[in-house]
From TrEMBL:
<keyword id="KW-0804">Transcription</keyword>
<dbReference type="InterPro" id="IPR036388">
    <property type="entry name" value="WH-like_DNA-bd_sf"/>
</dbReference>
<feature type="domain" description="HTH deoR-type">
    <location>
        <begin position="3"/>
        <end position="58"/>
    </location>
</feature>
<protein>
    <submittedName>
        <fullName>DeoR/GlpR transcriptional regulator</fullName>
    </submittedName>
</protein>
<dbReference type="InterPro" id="IPR018356">
    <property type="entry name" value="Tscrpt_reg_HTH_DeoR_CS"/>
</dbReference>
<dbReference type="InterPro" id="IPR037171">
    <property type="entry name" value="NagB/RpiA_transferase-like"/>
</dbReference>
<keyword id="KW-0678">Repressor</keyword>
<keyword id="KW-0238">DNA-binding</keyword>
<dbReference type="InterPro" id="IPR001034">
    <property type="entry name" value="DeoR_HTH"/>
</dbReference>
<dbReference type="InterPro" id="IPR014036">
    <property type="entry name" value="DeoR-like_C"/>
</dbReference>
<dbReference type="InterPro" id="IPR050313">
    <property type="entry name" value="Carb_Metab_HTH_regulators"/>
</dbReference>
<keyword id="KW-0805">Transcription regulation</keyword>
<dbReference type="Pfam" id="PF08220">
    <property type="entry name" value="HTH_DeoR"/>
</dbReference>
<dbReference type="Pfam" id="PF00455">
    <property type="entry name" value="DeoRC"/>
</dbReference>
<dbReference type="InterPro" id="IPR036390">
    <property type="entry name" value="WH_DNA-bd_sf"/>
</dbReference>
């Protein structure tokens, strides 16, 4: 088996199980542990996984978010539920901003249901899907392309956003703890903040499994958002904390504001 094939199978196992064990991989592929170590090193360098003692994981850490190619294959039901709920905030004729990420990519395609729209995005998956669609004025933000996030980021992106204005921005995050939303990449944080600053209204999208986690950088206070959408109710203590802080939380699975 070629190295590329073996590494793709490792990625498939990670999508299915979230973690892999070094010894199990060596047995499965009938290769040495050192070979598996090199495979995991290659995939970690590409931003696909992070190595842990005895194996690897795609679970987000404070300084790690898995590659877009991993995330787009995960949690499709939750993404669809959140996107459908977010879509209720959009009316034809609006100017909408959508950020990077696999969750946002699902929403981006659904926005076709609300055309005519002007759509501003740095998300390469959305650009590819919506280019040429009638009824969509697509403003594609330039910048430095990041394969890890499948998005354009950096000073060029931020400068363009400073000269634009949207009716609403949809912002996704891999971590929420207390009243704060986090992200592990500083370039992504700056792009998201620029979108927040350039929009009249803002909506945060977060998988309920990411609530109670932090990342390296504080991105925003949840009170900065007009709406926060998640796919399933978090713990009662979290709900109480949100309520005390006046944070509007919508549970997409029931589409019932809490």
């Amino acid at each position: 088996m070629r190295r590329e094939e073996r590494q793709q199978l490792i990625v498939n196992l990670l999508v299915e199980n979230k973690t892999v064990d070094l010894d199990d991989l060596a047995d499965r592929f009938t290769v040495s542990k050192m070979t598996i170590h090199r495979d995991l090193d290659d995939l970690e360098q590409a931003g696909v996984l992070r190595k842990v003692r005895g194996g690897a994981t795609i679970d987000a850490g404070t300084q790690f978010e898995s590659d877009f190619r991993i995330r787009e294959r995960q949690g499709s039901e939750a993404k669809l539920a959140m996107a459908e709920t977010a879509l209720e905030l959009v009316e034809p004729g609006m100017t909408v901003m959508v950020n990077d990420g696999s969750m946002a990519a699902v929403l981006g395609e659904m926005l076709l249901q609300k055309r005519p729209l002007t759509l501003i995005t740095n998300n390469a998956a959305i650009m590819e899907r919506l280019k040429g669609e009638t009824g969509i004025t697509l403003i594609a933000l330039g910048g430095i392309y990041s394969a890890k996030f499948n998005a354009y980021l950096g000073v060029v992106t931020e400068e363009a956003l400073s000269r634009l204005r949207a009716d609403i921005a949809f912002i996704s995050t891999p971590a929420v703890s207390g009243r704060l939303a986090y992200h592990m990449d500083d370039n992504v944080v700056r792009a998201k903040r620029a979108m927040i600053a350039s929009s009249t209204r803002t909506c945060l999208l977060v998988n309920h499994q990411r609530i109670g986690h932090t990342a390296l950088h504080v991105m925003a206070d949840l009170a900065d958002f007009d709406a926060v959408i998640t796919d399933s109710a978090p713990d009662a203590a979290v709900l109480e904390e949100f309520e005390r802080a006046g944070i509007a939380l919508t549970i997409a699975s029931t589409q019932d504001p809490t």
